[in-house]
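Exercise: predict the fold of this chain.
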Amino acid sequence: MSQVVVNGRLWTSRSDTIVDGPPLERVLAARSYTDPAAVRALLSPVPGPLSDPFLLLDMQRAVDTLLIPIRLRESIVVHGDYDADGLTATAILTLFLRRLGVPVTTLIPNRLDEGYGLSERALETALEARAAALITCDCGVRDLEIVARIEALGIPVVITDHHLPGPELPVCHAVINPQRQDQQGVQRELSGAAVALKLTWALAVALGQDELWKLGLGYAALGTVADQMPLVDENRDLVRLGLEQLRKNPGYGLGALLQQTRSNPEELVARDLAWTIAPRINAAGRLGRQQRALDLLLAKSETEALPIAAELEAINAERRQLEQEARATVEQGLAARPEQLADPLLVVADPGWHVGILGLLAARLADAYACPVLALAPDPEIPGRWRGSGRAGGKVSDLHALVATAADLLLEFGGHAGAIGLLVADDRIDALRQRLVDSLSAAPGGFLGDESSAESHIFDSSLYADELTLETAEEIERLEPYGRSNDEPLFHLSGLYLTELQTMGRENQHLRLEFFGEGAEGRIEAVWFGAGAELERLTASTGSLDLIATVGVNRFRGINKLQLNVKDLGPTVDRMSPAVSAGLDPEDCWQSFPDWRTEEIAAVAGLNEADLLPTREQLAALYLLLRDRLPPHGAALDLERLLDELPDRSTPVADRFRLRRILDIYHEAGLIVRRPTASTRLIAVMLPVTKRVDLYATATWARLTAAPDPDKGREFE
């Protein structure tokens, strides 16, 4: 695999497979698409067929249960959830049933005072509505007691959910959930909205109105993207179908939201659903105004929808402010107790946080600190208990399995591999944190997954300036929609020269750039979001630049142009990460063979032993550099940038090895707390020094300078 350094960061190619074809073929090869039939299916302009809804267990039972009240036009309660997936699922079923003339009562619990799932209000609502049936959306699979009580009143319950079930399923008329242990033959990671859509499809078939269910495709696509389902196989086809529908007719509600955000419906892609629409719908649920989001999705006119869209925009701004304040509190806490960063996960809690932003806060921290995060705040209803949201991060992908090891300490919990919610008594928070730390330390492999590794920054392929054409961008777009498990391809571009640079955005937080490259057809346009602070550095740049970027099409008023979306940018450098001639990197030897001496590692790498020993000047200089650079709460450090300022330089391989050993020594000596996050990054916090520190008394220095064993064979000589 090739490696390049861009802006001080080490980027690694996704694969060492070399294909002498056009860019799209190189991306496919890097992603191990080798089967011709799979490639044809992937690149087909026509989405594949969705799987038969009756493959889902209990689907026929659900249809049999609901057909009678539908035909008799009897009242049905649709009970949803307050996030974008649950709200879109609720809207799908509600609009479908109302189109059939069925009176529907919707119920979305308030996140702040009711929490997730079915509660006493579900039972009361069903009784008040004289419901002939109750359907859940994106919830219910763990609500055994309340479901049993509703059923005991003679009200049939049909559960549609996609969260992981507990040891027992609710006893009711139907439990439709692709995550059931006895379920086979379907894509297990479907969204709640997709499961609701499947139910409408099955009902439409039974009623002889085969096309009616397709009205929910757009909302199902939104729920799938919003809940970060993997965009492969059926999910990918579902999102493609939904986007086609939304581009033609987004409906009054989403149409108003697109107006509010100045988005063109005809140019909608999955990224717009994830970053523009879903956050605004989610914000309402997070702050206890979930009904307004549902009102938008069910709006019957533009006049009704426009003021609601404006209201959601204001709610989203309020959510953003609350999140920023909570993040600042976390950083202050880490500055006061930096030893927390030594743990393989973070558990953060504060009595002043709004429970509605806990999930977002956990997600942001999991990304920033590259580890699983649980964020907790007091339950607004019941004193003495705390609500929490968790997100997987770093190398831990199955957070649900990890939290399950502490189930006896929790009042309740649920969710899936990437995200969980929980309730815990305030006197058990410390025990919960310690249990999870112990579980990760004892059996880390049980919670890891293929997508969780943060080993390095990955790009798909190199791209040459003469390949930067609109035709190339349109070819790459055949891989849309992008999302989890189907990332937008990243390319390494070398030898470009900056010809134009300006800021854009309300706060000048983004950059608009133009480049020239030898062989390119004219100027190369690009944007770099969130990089406004790079303006001064790039203004002073005069030489050749390397980029990591995506290649897309900018569509504006009928004109299509190539546009790069920059992810990283820096001066072209000759130094890369060369493979060691003997086939083993010193760092690999150090980690894999703890009994090897420094001289043995040096011999394999073709280096002198002295090249691998940190010098006194390096030990002193790096500490002063960290002391000046690190804020009190710590920060992510880029090792390639630190390497550029290290004195007494040797070879790139030796320098990287020495830099990591110096950081090991600092950690063991109590000067820093650090946690690796990627091959070229780590999180570090400086610790206060209250006494004299002997760096040469650390275990790492002892191993580096250990005398050779005279009885050991000299196989490296």
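Check your answer against the key: The radius of gyration is 28 Å.
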